[in-house]
Queue: 2 jobs
Job 1
Amino acid sequence: MDIVKSLGHPEEIMNLFKFKMGGCRAVMPKLDDESMSQSLRTCYTYLNQTSRSFAAVIESLDGDLRHAVCIFYLVLRSLDTVEDDMTIPLETKVPMLNDFHTFLYQSDWCFTESQEKDRQVLEDFPTISLEFRKLGQQYREVISDICHRMGMGMAEFLEKKVGSMKEWDLYCHYVAGLVGIGLSQLFSASQLADPEVGQDTELANSMGLFLQKTNIIRDYLEDTQQGRAFWPQEAWGQFADSLEDLAKPEKLQSALSCLNLLVTDALRHVPDVLTYLARLRNQSIFNFCAIPQVMALATLSACYNNPMVFRGVVKIRKGQAVTLMMNANNMEAVRTIITQYSGQLLQKVSLTDPSRAETLHILGVIVEKSAPLQPALQSKSTHLSPMYLSAAMLLAALSWQYLSTTVAQAQGTGDMQRH
Ligand code: D61
Ligand code: MG
């Protein structure tokens, strides 16, 4: 089935075969768990059970960073399982979220009343907290601090809705920006990344916001069907009387306008993502950080102006995902990928979309910032690399789009004047 979906994309078919033949082992070597304690092996089992997208890239991290990030993931996944469990009453949930960081040092603390799919990590939390207490002090301090701040943020938003775009940024900061900030501190603490990586919390926060906003945009239907509302009212309120209304066929145009507005807002974080990735020196950390980001951009491009967001869950092809996983392992390749998807998005921007100008603007900024550096080095040789050419063409296409916008507007005003 995956092969069929990639029929029009020969590179993807090749990569799917390579992947099936274990080709991605180059990018993600097998975890040698011989020397592991039983409880640590159990933690890696929970990691693979609860995270489709992060397990493999976490297992391929170097040195003691691997275990630290694995435990960091399981601690926050446990906290999030409490937040997401709609069967836990508020008066129980709020104190649990606020005090969760203290459970890390209570060897027998566990929670057995969750109905969530990931409830295993709460029922057997003693195994996770045991491995947590075995980590180095520098890692435990980061994990406990981030767990405390995320728990308090989640509790804050249990009592209030995501209203303004600013509150959307704040909610995504609590549940994903703090993950980026914590990971960056773990990277620097492991000496596998420069201290500035852990210190520049703005960039680290953007890494999390781009991933979480993409998830929230993609999961519109699943979330609204489960009574969860993460789309900011400041956005949907411009197009409908309720968030659920966006799923009504007669509201499709309004729904697409709201969707495109949110995608455009999420794209604001891409320039920071590029700056963040360019600072990474360790290959395993680069893969771990870059792969989820380019997957998110591919998902955003697939969601943009796509009615399927209101009828199901839009997913990128398996062949596309494998190709991104195999290619996104150096900065030049990431620049090329981001330029390609910006071009794809550009082609979808309709003349009548209310966010058209903002979308074209941010795509222009992204294309400029992700223009491949290589050509400069090749200046000695006259010919310009194909990527340089396509970036130039993209910029040309963008300015053409701008011009046609302004002309249309001028004519419009002309028309306006006429009526
Ligand atoms: C570099 C590399 C990975 C990064 C990063 C920078 C910055 C941020 C993140 C990963 C986190 C991205 C989160 C996007 C997926 N959204 C969720 O998982 C939501 O839950 C958020 C709260 C718990 C966060 C758990 C987490 C996730 C990824 C990690 C990690 C911790 C620790 C280390 C590495 C990666 C979403 O949960 C979906 C679900 O319940 O399945 C939600 O409830 O909104
Ligand atoms: Mg959650």
Job 2
Amino acid sequence: MSTQGATTADAFERRLTPSPRTEAERAALVAEPTFGVVFTDHMARMTWTVTDGWGARRLEPYGPLQLDPASAVLHYGQEIFEGLKAYRHADGSVWTFRPWANAARFAASARRLALPELSVEDFLGSIEALVDVDAAWVPGAEETSLYLRPFMFASEAFLGVRPARTVEYLLIASPVGPYFSGGVQPVSIWVAEDYHRAGPGGTGAAKCGGNYAASLLPQQEAYQRGCEQVCFLDAATGTLLEELGGMNVMVVRRDGSVVTPALSGTILEGVTRDSVLTLLREGGHEVVERDLPLGEVLEGLRTGEVTEVFACGTAAVVTPIGRLAGEGFDLQVNGGKTGTVTTAVRHQLTAIQYGRAADPHGWMHRLA
Ligand code: COI
């Protein structure tokens, strides 16, 4: 799924707010953005019915939704979402990164959750339309961006368990800084052994709210143990690294090779994951996607065979992991410091995203 051609951006009716935040209010809100707390003046919206398909493309003032208490999403969780970012370049222009990949994943998630697919033209059209009216909300400071959150949910008021016949699509946007409150610093990971994120044949590869809901209790227990994130093991054997609560994981070995769990159907096909693997391969690193036993990583940390571990995702970008803990082990990674491979690939990726480096893959798409 890819289009460099026309999108439906112009079809979004502009029902703009009569009271947008003033420039001074916006500047204060954007100054040091915490992840996902502040939202722009508008949201993009579309409605789907089983009879008419997708329609009613519109931009509306950002605000609360009116929802029937019987809406299916509130009972059965029929919902999916995406995450991507808009970046301000030095010349003031605004760009996004591989939106076609997010559109394709959104469609795949929709299929798995029995929701209607949204075309790439509408996915990208909603982003172009919203960023057009709210472009001033894209921050310009280092490590900041406008986080775009497209999502879709079952809005039909009906308590029977079947796919909903009415569905809402919305896109909201939030000026953000680093995902972790400590900034771009090594984070600690707790490996959960009692809980799994997804099982074979489940929804692990879909970006649906339920996967994240299931990660919250183990995530809470990770916090209680002094860790910022939880790492899940596979449900089938309980021995293989899968992914973190909201990001993929990669391990760097002494010889410079990088190992990451293969896309088995139970982990998310991260856009950042794929981009990082491409950059590493091009940089001469051997990249191996395969089963990654926890035991191998722990042994490697003890012997020095594993030199770095990092997390990657749209929100996390590339985040170093400085500590890996779980029942019966608590190990530092690279002395708790950010490693050179992690630093280099993060730098390379963000240089493309922020327009400081060439974009040989055609990953960037101009929005404003
Ligand atoms: C993202 O990286 O965009 C996500 O959706 C994950 C979440 C932890 C914010």
